[in-house]
Write a structure and sequence with these properties.
- It is a single chain.
- The protein has eleven helices and five strands; from the N terminus they run αβααβββααααααααβ.
- The protein has 227 residues and is mainly alpha-helical.
- The protein has two domains: 64 residues, Winged helix-like DNA-binding domain superfamily/Winged helix DNA-binding domain (Arc Repressor Mutant, subunit A, Orthogonal Bundle), CATH 1.10.10; 144 residues, GntR ligand-binding domain-like (Four Helix Bundle (Hemerythrin (Met), subunit A), Up-down Bundle).
- The strands form two sheets. A three-stranded antiparallel β-sheet has the order 1-3-2.
- A hairpin with a 3-residue loop joins β2 and β3.
């Protein structure tokens, strides 16, 4: 039941039915699903773990809104983590990137079909496969904490004008570099990919050219709106 509740609430956040700042009342949710509040609390904890909601003492649980500053910082962290992951994993991928080729083929297929759910899943699988091959648990835990699969789903659901096919193509040269065991190149390409994602987000929210500018007014976005 908690899995079902989490999935439904997650989808409502993704499609905009639940908006940033909206309160999630445990009792009302329990009544909707004809259950006790225990699975509701568990579902909300899972959503909080991926930073879709936040709980504040004496104020309850609400859908998160993410500031521009947090968004741009998250892109920077992603780029740094994946740069390191590629350098650590390159020797293990050298001559053996069949897993990545399969994932990227599915990613291209999802992009052509404009299937946001499949695209987000395959995109997450691709990046996670590289981070896992680095065999560094602290690195993996840090990367997983960013929750990119849900973030990509949110971004694609809210901004359907994106060129998915073009964005999927950015993954191909990364695989080529890893196949040759070139961790420096693969790492640089992954960092550049994160930077291009950050630039796209800035364009989508019509932020200033310098997204980190202190003087610019902060832009609020739905939680997890990252590519």
């Amino acid at each position: 039941m908690s899995d079902r509740i989490r999935a439904v609430l997650e989808q409502r956040i993704v499609d905009g039915t639940l908006k940033p700042g909206e309160r999630l009342i445990e009792l009302n949710i329990a009544k909707e699903f004809d259950t006790s509040q225990t699975p509701v609390r568990e579902a909300l904890r899972e959503l909080e773990a991926v930073r879709l909601v936040e709980s504040v003492p004496h104020r309850g649980t609400r859908v998160r809104g993410v500031s521009r500053q947090e968004m741009t910082e998250a892109y920077d962290v992603r780029g740094a983590l994946e740069h390191l992951a590629a350098e650590l994993a390159a020797a293990k991928f050298q001559g053996d990137v069949a897993e990545l080729r399969t994932i990227v083929a599915a990613l291209h297929d999802a992009a052509r079909r404009a299937d946001g759910e499949a695209y987000a899943r395959r995109n997450s699988e691709f990046h996670e496969a590289i981070v896992r091959r680095a065999a560094n648990q602290v690195l993996l835990d840090s990367w997983l904490a960013l929750g990119f699969e849900v973030r990509v789903r949110l971004m694609l659901a809210r901004h359907k004008q994106l060129n998915w096919v073009e964005h999927a193509a950015e993954h191909d040269p990364i695989v080529d570099a890893l196949e040759f065991g070139d961790g420096a190149l693969a790492g640089r390409l992954l960092r550049e990919h994160a930077e291009s994602c950050k630039r796209r987000w800035c364009e989508l929210v019509r932020a200033a050219d310098d997204c980190g500018a202190e003087e610019a007014a902060p832009t609020e976005a739905p939680a997890g709106c990252l590519s």
